[in-house]
Amino acid sequence: MEMKMFAITGVSGQVGGATARTLLATGHKVRAVLRDRSKAAAWEALGAEIAVADLEDAESLARAFTGADGVYVMVPPSFAPQPGYPEARAASSAIAAALKAARPGRAVALSSIGGERQSGLGLITQVHILEEALAPLDLPIAILRPTWFMENSLWDIAPARDTGKMPSFLQPADRPFPMVATADIGKVAAETLIQSWTGKRVIEIEGPKLYTQDELAGLFGKALGCDVTAQPIPHGEWEGLFKSLGTAWPAPRIEMIDGFNSGWIAFEPEKHEHVVGGTTFETVLAGLVERS
Question: How many whole angstroms separate alpha carbon 143 and alpha carbon 112?
């Protein structure tokens, strides 16, 4: 196997970290792109090269991307963005400019299910902005569109343990929704970077099965050793609840969840590549409970 070099942004996060670790485990070189060098020690211990760059600074990103066979890019996710998504726009513009200047062999970008939509996306608008920024580039690019992260359930562990209720925004509670583990997204990202292709690709990613909120509550009960039931939160309470949690502008979060519940945000498997990961929610939940 030919050893290649891949520059990976977002290594401090779940998907970027999983991508980098998968590449290192398969014998490839990784350049971990970090904003803060103080976080470099763990990656250096794994054998990664370190590049310090800010995701809103095209010049430092271009240096980090130069000479790489492939690059994994993402915009920093925010559940409390500013109106107009200035952070996502700045990062997307810098990433696109850096890729254009550095000309790596290929790029894999993290988007989301529904990322092709022009409206009605809420928080997913942040990755739609990245997709739009990358579209004009004359570079082999693969857009990853995973579904709802299983790891989002971390927020539900405390209330489930303390009250026996799992707050549910995905509704109705007996409707199955696709979910995916971040480890599976990272695996797909790494495998895609190793490949060669021309033009643009879109790869949808979901887990091995769909889950209802009622099923998730049952799995929470087994993992926590107590009775847990799903508690659908009335839509009229969402804005006040999100504001109480520190979200000054909750409209994007509400719009995103509405998009899932209405079916507006959905896969298009007839149009794109579609990958089914192997990690179950039970596996992810066991890890979340152990760390909580």
Answer: 9
**116-136 tens-digit pLDDT:** 999 999 999 999 999 999 999
Nearest to residue 69, comparing CAs of 4, 154, 147, 165? 4
pLDDT digits over 201-214, tens only? Answer: 999 999 999 999 99
Element (H, E) at 194: helix 182-194
Full DSSP string of 142-169:
EEEEE-EEGGGGHHHHHHHHHHSEEEE-
Whether 223 maps to a domain, the answer reads no
CATH label of the domain that carries residue 82: 3.40.50.720
Are 211 and 147 in contact by the 8 Å Cβ rule? The answer is no
pTM, two decimal places: 0.97
Cα angle at 131 between 126 and 212, to 5 degrees? Answer: 60
Question: CA angle 65-68-74, nearest 5°?
Answer: 50
**Strand pairing report for 177-180 and 210-211:** antiparallel
19-33 CB burial, b ≥16 within 10 A, e <16: bbbbbbeeebbbbbb
Number of residues that this document lists for the chain: 292
Q: Please, are residues 242 and 253 in contact by the beta-carbon 8 Å criterion?
A: yes
- Whether residue 239 is contained in a domain is answered as no
Q: Per-residue pLDDT for 232 more than 70? A: yes
pLDDT at 1: 64
pLDDT 10s digits, 56-72: 999 999 999 999 999 99
How would you class 164 by CB atoms within 10 Å of its CB: exposed for 0-12, middle for 13-18, buried for 19 or more?
Answer: middle
